[in-house]
Amino acid sequence: MSKSIRFEVDDEQHERLKEIKNKRGYTWKGLMLEGAEALDTGEQ
Questions:
Q1: Largest alpha-carbon pair distance within the chain?
Q2: How far apart are CA 32 and CA 28, in angstroms?
Q3: For helices 28-39 and 11-24, angle between their N-to-C axes, nearest 10 degrees
Q4: pLDDT digit string, tens, across residues 2-32
């Protein structure tokens, strides 16, 4: 079963995220997963 994640960002945040997403060729999902991977330190 698939899940969805929704959150709101302001216009400036959206533009910044969209630029990063497009520059790297990511989908929105890919951008989110890459960010999570970068933040994962293995600590719980």
A1: 33
A2: 6
A3: 90
A4: 999 999 999 999 999 999 999 999 999 999 9
2-41 burial, b if ≥16 CB within 10 A, otherwise e? eeeeeeeeeeeeeeebeeebeeeebeeeebeeeeeeeeee
Token duo for residue 44: 């719980």
- How distant is the alpha carbon of residue 37 from its chain centre? 10
Place of tokens 């890919």: 30
pTM score: 0.79
CA distance to 13, 26, 34, per residue, from 39 (Å): 19, 17, 9
